[in-house]
């Protein structure tokens, strides 16, 4: 059993929970860190950082760990998403803290004095209020500013403003007769339309009872065929031709729903065919590859290609498979021109192809 180091105390609780879950999965599988690195395509140093809480693993590494340990990728990905949000919040707080420290250091270097700060907003408000207040003995109305400002005097500061600014009751009465006329016309039109609709409906029912017509219409319609739609497991979003060209990870066809019927190499890159019995689809994936290495899969008149990225892994969109998945082959080509194709994997005692041991993605 691996002996883990204590997680950093400053870790966010969600990141701490996620790292602890990764450790429990590795412990339960019995894999060492070196074996985990070999099974997922990510280095031993990277996994030590991931499992000790010093770095958040990428999502593909999480999916690869789930496949290597037999865990459900969707559940582990959910925990990863929560940890990723918490990790981003911590990084943002650190950026704000470092910015505040830099500002304080810059002010100190320039000899900035906190006592020379600008006067508080209250004194500015008082000054403006004294400028706009009416002179004694006059009835001059205060001018209304064109733009409302948060530091301008309010009705609470000068009660006489509220009384002077009250709206005149005679203003809306000039338009009230016209409004009443328009409202009456609208009501009359609506009532007339409703009456016409009611009369039309009554006439239709009177001259077309509808009983015989409904029976004839029902008899002429063909009986609806019983629905043969396949009930898919939770998380699976397509099957068969509906999956062609789509991402197996996003459609829920990978993980526990997929096996590896064939595997091969192109140089140092591992080329695999992944088959989902639930979705009736297959896709090729490449791992331990150099950036630019490619994997191609063809089946059922469709083909798909994927190119390895910086992490050395990639997978193609799905193609439909209606026959034996062991007969579906994937081929890879490295940037150096080395080619290789997959071959059927010997069946396990249970009769199913052996699970993948060297992939970083679904």
From TrEMBL:
Record has Hydrolase as a keyword: no
One of the Pfam families matching this protein, by short name: DUF2690
Annotated Low complexity bias: 127-139, 344-362
Keyword Secreted: no
GO MF entries: DNA binding
Domain of life: Bacteria
Region annotation Disordered: where it falls in the sequence: 113-155, 343-362
Annotated HTH cro/C1-type domain residues: 22-76
InterPro entries named among the record's database cross-references: Cro/C1-type_HTH, DUF2690, Lambda_DNA-bd_dom_sf
UniProtKB keywords: Membrane, Transmembrane, Transmembrane helix
Protein name per its UniProtKB record: HTH cro/C1-type domain-containing protein
Organism: Streptomyces glebosus
